[in-house]
Amino acid sequence: MAQFDVYENLDADTREAYPFFIDLQNDLLHDLNTRVVAPLVLKQSFKRAPIQALCPVVRGIRAHDSNEEFVVMTHQLASIPLPANQVPVVSLKDQRYVLLNALDFLITGS
């Protein structure tokens, strides 16, 4: 797993609500057996727009619909066991600064 890679949620109990998750953990900590991730939720499932600074909107997760929007639920960070042999769907490393700014906003408020 690499930082900013997006993976399918394979957990049957949570997959409908959280179809994907993004790895936010720095690659320097690759020896740990866990990864810090945030779930991604379809933007259309929100009644009100999420706080953009905290929950950035990303696109390009599903190859068949590159305009489909997902919200990165930064405030729902979790640590998960390192998944075995799971292949990333896409990398969002081009969104690095937006994602790091959301984490900074979560922790420092700025």
UniProtKB/TrEMBL annotation:
One of its GO terms (molecular function) is DNA topoisomerase type II (double strand cut, ATP-hydrolyzing) inhibitor activity. Belongs to the CcdB toxin family. InterPro entries: CcdB, Plasmid_toxin/cell-grow_inhib. GO terms for biological process: plasmid maintenance. It comes from Pseudidiomarina donghaiensis. The keyword Methyltransferase does not apply. Pfam families: CcdB. Keywords: Repressor, Transcription, Transcription regulation. This is Toxin CcdB.
